[in-house]
Amino acid sequence: MKKIRFTTTQIILLSFLLVIFLGSILLALPISSAGGRAVPYIDALFTATTSTCVTGLVTVPTFSTWSVFGQVVILILIQVGGLGVITVMTGMMLLLNRKLGVGDRLLIQDAFNLNTLSGLIKFVRNVLFGTLIVEGIGAAVYMLVFVPEFGPKGIWISVFTSVSAFCNAGIDMIAENSLCNYATDPVINVVTSALIILGGLGYIVWWDVLRVVKRRSPKDRKMFRYLTLHSKIAITVTAGLILIGAALIFLFEYANPLTIGEMSLFDKLQVSFFQSVTTRTAGFATVAQEDLTNASAAVSVLLMLIGGSPVGTAGGMKTVTIAVLVCSAFATIRNKRSATLFGRSLSEDAIKKAVAVVVMFLGICTAATVLLLATSDASAIDAVYETVSATATVGLSRNLTATLNTFGKLIIIATMYFGRVGPISLAVALGSKNESQNVVSEPTETISIG
Questions:
Q1: Least CB-packed of 165, 273, 315, 387 within 10 Å?
Q2: pLDDT tens for each residue of 350-369
Q3: Who contacts 30 (Cβ-Cβ below 8 Å, separation ≥6)?
Q4: pTM for this structure?
């Protein structure tokens, strides 16, 4: 009997499917329901998918539908999905003192899309410990608000919210309207934004910043120049998008009485800033998304599509991808031989990968939008908002998710899954070496572009 061998791409795809399936079975049990009666399996499957894919779209309210057991299952799915199934499995093997073989190391390398096999064990340990430390600090600060308000239950709410925020899941167990009750609370805004940004920047940026801080004097004002090109791009694009997004939303919503129109100037600023941050695949809402102006909704869609940075907990096309693509486009327009960023030339391989990721994302969004419009009564803007949010694993909705029929739910489930694992599998596929080295290339012929 021939032994079945799975590629690293197939293992990653199947591991997410297995976790989603197991999660859906647990959530479909009566013990997971707050009322003691099993929820419909389609809603259990939807919740398991949105948790594992750290999306945040929900068909049933998290705070009132699920029991403590169900909430624990959801939290575990969020943590596993945010860190990555392979990372969690590796962490368990390390705890059991099991040695990792070459195959295990290759799987970790592909899961994180790293360029080397050296230092992988240390990298995974740092990821796990770093995540626990940041989530722990976030939970501790949340308790300053939630414990006085909810009593002992506030501890659990704080832990759940911290993990969900850092993993960019956007699922909360406070109220049906997400964090809208805390729209003007500075502590909630600052802590949640910080967790989202840290998770979205990516672990590679963390270690690179720490490396520079350790080796350079705090008085050195040129510390930024010692960072790697990846970190420079991720930090610069992240900061730029957040500030530009916040400014545009502040401008477009300034006089909107349904969102920030009646707020003080300070509250308008912090709500606009939070909206810009949360669209970077986090999914928490402090204003009802259906009340946004069309201009703000368009800005939010663009921010959702771009998302966070590689090798982090965020989704989307990623900041580095967009920076490479835009830089390449401008280089072509200016008739330059190569695209450069921060004094470094971008490789042709990086540009090709960026194009592939963008095409894949837009393809998934387009297909999902057309199917959703064909099977529901949703408006075009609501459908686009929903599918972009699902593909980029954001979790923001214009109040459409809960009204979806069975076909609509299945479409969004598939969209969330492909949006989460698609970039990973694509990166692995593009990063693998061509087995045939002696392939005769096809003849080249000039075509017209543009």
A1: 273
A2: 888 889 889 989 999 999 99
A3: 36, 37, 38
A4: 0.88
